[in-house]
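Per reviewer request, we include the raw input and output of the structure prediction for the construct analysed in the revised manuscript.
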Amino acid sequence: MASKAYKEIMAGALDALAWANGDKTRGREIRVRVSSVNVHALREKLRLSQQQFAKAFGVSLGTVRNWEQGRTEPDGPARVLLNVIEKEPRAVLRAIRPRRKEAA
């Protein structure tokens, strides 16, 4: 069983290495388009100040301001996080909230 898993993982790793070196016959590329989010509108919908939004979701206040004023655009992981926040803000907050220590 472990031997089969090892072979599959190794085959995948070799395919990824070949792809990275220009051999496009091994593996495939999948691109995912993540829509942009109007950060100001999202923040207003959640009734949070810029500072509260930044603190709640782990980004700097300057970053939130830059996004809202159009100086920068959220990229990659930030764009994904903002899309999830837009759809399920409570789930994100639950996921990132520190867990309380269990009483012994």
